[in-house]
Amino acid sequence: MNIAYSTELICFLILSAVIVSGSLAVVLLENIVYSAFLLGGVFMAVAGLYLLLNASFVAAAQILVYVGAVNVLILFAIMLVNKKEKLKPIKGLKTRKLISGGVCGGLLILLLRVSITTKWNLPGPTSIGEEATERIGEHLFTDYLLPFELASILLLMAMIGAIVLARRDISISTGDINDFKNKKSLINKKIPLLSENSLK
Amino acid sequence: MGELLSFQIFINEPVELLNLSLNAKAVLPEAAVLMAMLGTLLVDLAGEKVSARWSPPICYAGLGTSLILLIMQWNGEIQESFLGAFVADNLAIAFRGVIALSTLISLLISWRYAEQNGSPIGEFAAILLAATLGAMLLCGSTDLVSVFVSLETLSVASYLLSGYLKRDSRSSEAALKYLLVGSAAAAVFLYGASLLYGISGSTNLKEIGISLISAPTPLSALALVFVLSTVAFKIAAVPFHQWTPDVYEGSPTPVVAFLSVGSKAAGFALAIRILVGCFSAFDTQWKLLFTVLAVLSMSLGNVVALAQKSMKRMLAYSSIGQAGFVMIGLVCGTEDGFAAMVLYMAAYLFMNLGAFACVILFSIRTGSDQISDYAGLYQKDPLITLGLSLCLLSLGGIPPMLGFFGKIYLFFAGWADEQYLLVSVGLVTSVISIYYYISVIKMMVVTEPKEASDVVKAYPSIEWSMKGMSSLKVALIFCVLVTAIGGIISNPLFNFADSAVNGTPLLQEAITLASKSSIG
Predict the structure, then answer these.
(1) Do B367 and A197 touch (CB under 8 A)?
(2) Which residues of chain B have pLDDT under 50?
(3) Which residues of A80-104 are buried (b: 16+ CB within 10 A; e: fewer)?
(4) How far apart are CA B123 and CA B131, in angstroms?
(5) Which of B102, B79, B34, B492 is nearest to B319 (CA)?
(6) How far apart are CA B516 and CA B512, in angstroms?
(7) Which residues have C-beta within 8 Å of that of residue B92, sequence separation ≥ 6?
(8) Alpha-carbon gap: A90 to the closest alpha carbon of chain B (Å)
(9) Contact of B103 with B128, CB cutoff 8 Å
(10) The pLDDT value given to residue B184
(11) Can you give the pTM of this predicted structure?
């Protein structure tokens, strides 16, 4: 066992421990802010795993997208909705937890068993390290051109949709008279289609 | 194999990349839809009034061009385009046609609805067109990555559309439920896809199929289950159907019309691509799983529909049952089976959208979608009564409507392939379905004028001059006419379904395999 190998092994073990314990804590902790920060830690550790596998581009993308965007967004959402609210206790929460725990445990055992019994094609293709970015670009403009272009449409549509959902239909009155008039006229103009009698 | 080899060489030598032919012609119909989408967005910049004036013609032009281009592709030379990411065989063209037509009809019936709700029209049309684009590309995708991206385009657009009525809390609830369940399904699909990539080292469905045949492992069975559950989610097969009734009830009705036809057609096309094209090594397994799904969908969908009081919920459960019928054709795997599937999808397009057009017209005039409110409608509004009756009879499979021929062809194909369990369950449940379809008709036609519901008693005078009503009328009459007359002159549809199967190499391979194994 040479030094390179043992360092790699130690790094792998540490990262895996962080990932497993971190994700368990994300699910089990009561305080949602802790969960969100721990989720960031888990994402970072996953990026570390990618680095160990010599996939630096994927690691950078993981940090940029998941830690930089997704996790920060989650934290924003939590801090904006900082409302203390007593949630109603759910009936039979314990049995529900037990059942879902059982299902997840079963799935885990299934996955473990399958991954042990499968003859993996090892060792996989040799990693190309720094060339990866170049190769990804090549793929994006050859055999993955169609999904690449479609992704731009997906993002455009998602952006428009987010604006549509976030836009206020009825302006909230700020005490201004004009504002108030607008609000009234908007309400008068628009008749809700599904009126009360349809909810009977 | 020669193609694969040369493909490898191209990838290894970047200089050669310039000589690659993409065959981008194959996605011209999608390009037309994309142009219409961008057009509506640009017009929308000029304000709501201009957008309401110009969005409809732009959408008609885009979808019409797309349909014409699809017709021109029919029976054309089949070439892999985008280096194996997309193929425009007849099967893909048929399903893309169904999707484009369903969007066109959904748009026709949506203008008045959107106007009355006060929702912005331009964005609505743009998002619906994006959903169409995703669904159409999904039908022809032959690569896991493009399958996933187009699936997500369709799904994200559907979530947005179902939450479009922001002031109705049920619409928001529908969107949130759909988003959560749909994201879980997408994650499961990705897991399955990553396993497939790990097994085969390729994302191309054909290559994955080849490597699955050479080395079937327990892992690939697991991947099959994961991928299949996503497909079942998309076509709303029981037990992956829980989202359907809530989403259908809460979403705007034109969106439901699109989801029940366009999105479902895309799901079936995906099922054929992945299961027939990629999992041929697990033929017996996936057919068994689909038999279970089909039996459950037919029985649960049709039985629960009996108890529904809301028209939209009833149509939701009936669509679950209808998906079960279509699955019979998929399980058969014979030439007749696939042809019956295509035929029934086409027939379902007209009858279901016709029914939705009537439901929308009724809700525009009265603001209700409760079944009991339809009582005695025939005296006030003969058009809705006639149209809804014909479409529901057709959905139930009463001759001589279009639906009868579709259903009988499915059962015939199933019987010929010795799927006795499926066919008998199908027959029993379609009798049940006739009961609840007829009870709506009975409610509308037979009820005495005195017993008419309050809503019908206060029915407004029939008015077609309002904005967006004429297009609704056109769509309604078109769907009802095709449903009623299509059954009598159904020969072109049969020819269409047959040549859809004959012009698809993928299906031909599967059929020869199936016939070989049955002889041997």
Answers:
(1) yes
(2) 1-11, 15
(3) eeeeeeeeeeeeeeeeeeeeeeeee
(4) 12
(5) B102
(6) 6
(7) B139, B140, B269, B504
(8) 19
(9) yes
(10) 94
(11) 0.90
